[in-house]
């Protein structure tokens, strides 16, 4: 039976009816001919969570293509676990999610223009927890039912979900349902299975901070449909999806995914789409990204403008420059869409001219000698940045260790001891003179006679007095004029830029609300820095503390400024000629000089043509 034409999601929405106090949707880019085209095959990946905002958004997207008097959704729990001992508990938990979907769908319809069209919603649990369930023809009935309008895959373990579903009657029935217009969505692991090439989590003992390394994460290509090492057979072929994207610091992982896809498939590989918590969008006919919704934005990563990816050094760290990136969010009264075959952004269905990456502003240090900008956590015997500093220090003189930005004396003393011990382990046999900023005097004449200056900052929100201190500025200037080696680490590196972010350092958690907030416009509070480096805002501990969003936000706030993230145990080594990366991990830049920014409806950053570059150890930054 033919389905009704798509309806405007914006027309269906009554603002303020959803959580978080922000409009949830972009106005869809409908045209006069939209009503006459066929119902699209629609995927709705959601980056995680079961928030009212994302569930209601999904329900209204289903309503656009629904038929009959109710909106009918089938909930799939295959990612939950297949252990027989857990079956009853898993079915109970999944049943609670189905009931939640039912209630949120009803609430969404009542608060929208669809309230007068549909009598309500039904959300039914399909008991697909193990392989036997998926092979049982009786469990296929919900997908073949002509009244079914949506299928929603719950979160959990995407690898387990595909072991249950791959090459089963259930998967075949879901594929047929998708072809006839049933809207297939899912959250977290339910997001991951919606791309044929499927991310399968981190390798053993690997974490988000390793994401830019070639083998840190597992990737199932999906070339062999007979295998279960893939996403759903009808998932997007053009893109690789990732989930909890900002929340869990997965930008590096997705960059590595698309770089590996370029190797595997040739050319520029697949598009990467990173979807964050309580956020989603629609993929129509595997050709168009449209109707973004939710709390944040989704990132589109495209290698078509980039250099050929390289894997550098013993850790196979990604080096690629000029990766075109778009932040797609719901806009105020307008619509962002993305054409996947041509890899072009559209605004209200008008194609936007595509920018190209350009050379970064010259990144050098004025003065004499070497300037080492450490990304934090370099108080170790194995630190290559600390070794470079020691090697450039003048023997026979003291190294001056300056500590600033500490909330308590215990932490400061601990770091003083750790950096002193690390200097000794690196071979320094001379004096280490500790200066506690705000307690001990800092004499520029003393600095000129030193072997080197190592400035360590703890928390960027507590560095204002250090930046304003005339003796600090005079001492650093004296060191640079006289060729004394200078190294900064942690927050002391951040304040070395022309401007710096004054927000408190984020907590390191696997569920980081701060990492999500960093992708909201204006979240980064900027102040004038020491100006050791011009034209750049520097962010330390990039990959460990998920600071990716700050690199984008500074470009939105200060056009012409480059955001540069320096990972932990890593550094930029600047001379009057160039800047090079040393250490364990990466330096990442975000160039927003040619970006277009748009006012989003939910406060998230929304922009096109941001160019991301990753630099591996030994790379020159340019």
Automatic annotation (TrEMBL):
CDD domains: GAT1_cyanophycinase. Gene3D superfamilies: 3.40.50.880. It comes from the Bacteria. Pfam families: Peptidase_S51. GO terms for molecular function: serine-type peptidase activity. Keywords: Hydrolase, Protease, Serine protease, Signal. This is Peptidase S51 family protein. The lineage of its organism: Bacteria, Bacillati, Actinomycetota, Actinomycetes, Micrococcales.
